[in-house]
Amino acid sequence: MFLNAGLDKFLHYMPMPKMEGEMAKVFDAFMTLKWLMPFVGFFEIVGG
């Protein structure tokens, strides 16, 4: 499961759900940090 989620951070093969309200604001804040998702994805792949 972690392997699949980690690979999706790099290959983008699973569709993202539409986010609304506060969750959209939080996700936008995470996406301003360009290094965060690849960093998390790397550890998901290693851990998976």
Topology readout:
Blueprint: H1 2-11, H2 22-32, H3 36-47
Protein name: DoxX family protein
Organism: Pseudopedobacter saltans
The low-confidence parts are none
Strand content: under 5%
Question: What structural class results from the helix and strand content?
Answer: mainly alpha
Mean pLDDT equals 90
Strand tally: 0
Radius of gyration: 12 Å
> How many structural units, i.e. domains?
1
Head-to-tail CA distance between termini? 7 Å
**Helical residues, percent:** 55-70%
Shape: globular
- How would you characterize the largest beta sheet? none
Order of helical and strand elements: HHH
Q: Figure out the total of helices.
A: 3
Protein name: DoxX family protein
Organism: Pseudopedobacter saltans
What does this protein look like?
The chain has 48 residues and is an all-alpha fold. It has one domain. Helix content is 69%, strand content 0%. It is built from three helices and no strands. It has helices spanning 2-11, 22-32, 36-47. The longest helix is centred in the last third of the chain and has 12 residues, at 36-47. It is globular and about 30 Å long. 2% of the residues are buried.
